[in-house]
Amino acid sequence: MTTERQQRTRVSRELHARAAELASATVALHYERVPQLVARYGAPGRVRCLEDAHYHLSYLEQALAADSPVLFTSYVQWARSMLESRGVPVADLDMNLRCLLEILGRETSTQAAAAMVDDALLALSGPTGDIPTLLRDSEPHGQLAREYLRLLLDWERRGASQLILDAVAAGASIRDMYMHVFQPAQHELGRLWQLNEISIAQEHYCTAAAQLIMSQLYPQLFAEPRSGRTMIVSCVSGELHELGARMVADLFELDGWDTVYFGANTPAPALLAAINEHQPKLLAISATLTVHLGRVRELIDAVRTDADAAHTTIMVGGYCFNRDPELHRRLGADAHSVDANTAVAIANTLFEAP
Question: What is the distance between the alpha carbons of residues 29 and 13, in angstroms, rounded to a whole number?
Answer without folding.
Answer: 23
